[in-house]
Input
Amino acid sequence: MRSLRALAAFSLVTLLAVTTPIHSVSAESVKDVEDEINELEKEKSDLESEKEEAKKKKDDSEEKLESNKKEQNNVESEISSIDEELSQTQSDIADKEGEIEATNQEIASLTNEIEELSNRIDELEEDIVDLEERIEQRDALIKDRLRSIQQNGGEIQYLEVIFGAQNFSEFVSRSTAVNRIMDSDRSIMEEQANDKAQLEDDKGELEASKVTVEENKVAVEENKAALEDQHDELLALQDQLDEQISDKETLLADLEIEYDEMEEVKLSAEEEQQLIDAQAAAKQAALESAQSKKDDLEQKEAEEKARAEAEAERKAEEERQAEEARRAAAESEQEAEQQEEESEEQEQESQPAEEESESEDTSSEEETEQQEEESDVDVQVASGASGEVKSEDAAPSNRSGFIRPTSGPTTSPFDPNRVHPIHGDVRPHNGIDFGQAGEADKVIRAAADGVVAYTGTMSGYGNTVMVTHNINGQEYTTLYAHLDSFTVSNGETVSQGDQIAVMGNTGGSTGIHLHFEIHPGGYKNPVDPAGYLN
Output
């Protein structure tokens, strides 16, 4: 009976060992890797769509830039043409101002001439008055002489005066006196005639001078008025041209600002394309890594399956051998029992009491052995089950969380409404800034395991490194900016804590520091890194 129970216990343990399910970690891992590959393929496809959008944005920007440049050239050409016209206008204004100045000088000269003529007129008027007085006096004298001659008989009186001389000397004296009187009368008459002629000439000159002066003055004043009108027109044209130039310069400035903004858009699109290319390369590297991991796991799974099949065959053979042993033991036991029964029947008659006592002892001993054997079986089964659970608990798990990328102190927190220290306007601060307290703080390390998605220069960020991570099935992108230099390249795999760069002051920066960002789900989704750093 003891052998039969032992065989039954052995068979039970063998059966439990064969029928207990094998927990395959590798099969589950292969499925995880396949899911990861599918997700990476999807993300790669999404990146292709984003790349097309970025290319379209870049092409649109280039087209707008070309159109803006043409418009700038047209405006510059118009400004150049207006400048030439303005220069000509300014030259014409200078000429007109010269003509006006010459006219003013001419007017001044005519004014002086008019003043001189006015003085001459005054003199002539005084001379005319004197002549008129002298003429009037002579007229009175001539009238008296004519009246005297008429009363005394004319020229006969002169002969009487001459021939009434008493001697020759008196004759000569009287002749001389008469000649003097006659010469005086003749001189008076000539002077009177000359004065009258001079009076007429002076009056004519006076009238002519007045007419000339007035005509010249009117002509010069008309010329001056015409010149001043032309000057005013030129000044108005100059103001108009100045206004046109001002408008064109304002338009040109606006176009230049627009060009700079579109250039930034183009650069942003180019950077986005580069970033997408880098991310695509990182995704491809991750795909290749995942595929390699899948191949390894599939190989391990095949090996494990082969080992399981071999183990199953071994256990089946052991079970078959155990069954044969069990059958042989059962037959042997049956024969032994028959012999024992025959022997017991012979002894029962002679020693009934002794046999009963021994039978009780044997029964008690067999029960004790059965309990021990059953206990051993339970221990073996529990031990086998415990081994499987322990194996499952020991399965590796992905590391979660990010470490600080530098040992430097925090100098500026995440702030969507921060006033920019350079531009002075409100611009979101999409990360955390770390400063440098010591030389060791300049070492920049990967915040988590991942693949380098981008290394290069970005607008405002200067030298920049971006790393993509996959933590517990969630994708993240970390950004490290204003770097002095970087020690990794696109597509390179990094582990948490690996040095990837050196802190610097490139891009839009006011001093040596690190700008650090975390983007769950991929770039352009910034969150406060403080909640993610261990």
